[in-house]
Amino acid sequence: MLSLIKGLPVTKAAQILPILSAKAASSSNCARSYHSFYHVEPPIADPSSLENQILAKAYTEFVPKVGFTEKAVNRAAAALGTNPNSLGAIFNFTTPSHDIAMELALYHLKFARQEMHDQNKEKAISLPNEKERLKFYVAQRLLLNRPVIDFYYQALGRMILPSNVSESLKELHNLADDISYYAGDRSTDFAWYSKRFAVAGAFVQSELFMLKDNSPDFRDTIQFASDRLDEVDKLGRIYNSFEEWLLFNGISTINMIRSQLVRG
Amino acid sequence: MSLVFKRFASRASSGAKYLAPKPTNGPTHTALSDAQKAYLDRVIRVDQAGELGADLIYMGQFAALGHHKELRPVIRHMWDQEIHHHATFDALQTNLRCRPSLLTPAWKVGAFGLGLVGGMMGKEFAMACTEAIETVIGGHYNTQLRVLSNNFGDLKDLETGETTSSAEIRHLEEQIKIFRDQESGHLNTALKHDAQKARPHWLIFEGVKLITKTAVYAAERI
Ligand SMILES: [Fe+2]
Ligand SMILES: [Fe+2]
Fold first, then answer.
1. Contact call for A8 and B211, based on CB within 8 A
2. Coiled-coil stretches, from where to where (chain B) (predicted)?
């Protein structure tokens, strides 16, 4: 028993330790993972940074007038007494294109994701099950697009540019992860992925639907989203029973198991 | 076999009893760095996948060797411990919001198959598999313990201002320590039950070790 402890692979630790320091550089780029209870969790968009103050002002005051454009950010900067020409130095760009309008679009995504949780924590608790909470959070998040809906096509246009798309997908994943978690998802296996993937898909489809929706209070959009999420629910159940079937009927198929083993 | 079915069907809940009790007045320590978070994320993912695998390997062995009067309680005991390990990492993964391994379906089929096929090859073969797996896992857990105790004590306690490990990190360390000791208990059990009489022992031992190491490598990343 002791030989196990004495004979530990020291080199392995040496391999791992550099990861701890090397990765720190490219930090804020990763999708959110590991949420601590005992350590302070940084806010989704830190309101104390100058960058976010400018973006917040642009978002609330100028987007409704001039849309998701560089102009909106420039005006907000000027209003806060910052020279719009110095934004390149102030901003901590998340995409390689250094696209100010994209930062504004991302600010909307982060702000709305934070609001979705902060505004609805209490209301969500009273809902009977995970599916209802899922629908509720998606609807609330969609409605957070309302103040900027007339210009939202501009933001979407920025997000899908090739240089911006990976950052957009990361934020979309974070949204799907938040929605699933707050709704009560506690999947421990592949269902974790299929659920987030499906929630993200349903959300994007609903956003596109919303752009053309003229119904009062976007009732049609909410209904559309609810229908998509019903499909998600069905999908998850089909997957899980398939897996059980595979495990118990497939054991006679030794070849299949062998091929899985080879795959390691 | 019916016990195998029952266990599989009833393993859903993941509870607070496996976690460090939540702090009553919010966070006690300053924020983890992104690198520290990435490391914890990885630890929980690979350990969850590993304990899932262990759970299913013993399930497979139990299905194959459960009729064996002497072996039944021996395997059952190790399996029960793995069920606890597995449930603990499930609770950590879901509550601390790490993603599970994408390859989970492959781990399930592979591990159950390894346990079942290994068990069908006979007692010695199965025990040699256990010997190999637990050897790799023991070293793996020791490495994690070293990193956890060396790299997570630099965070400030919000009340006292001292730099300490938070209860969350200490809890994870304690769990891994307990599991490591139980895994080396499994190793001893395997040796006591003729693991080294398997033929060809070196082939089974090295082969299963390689499979385990490859799985660890993949589960950390994917
Ligand atoms: Fe274990
Ligand atoms: Fe074990």
1. no
2. none
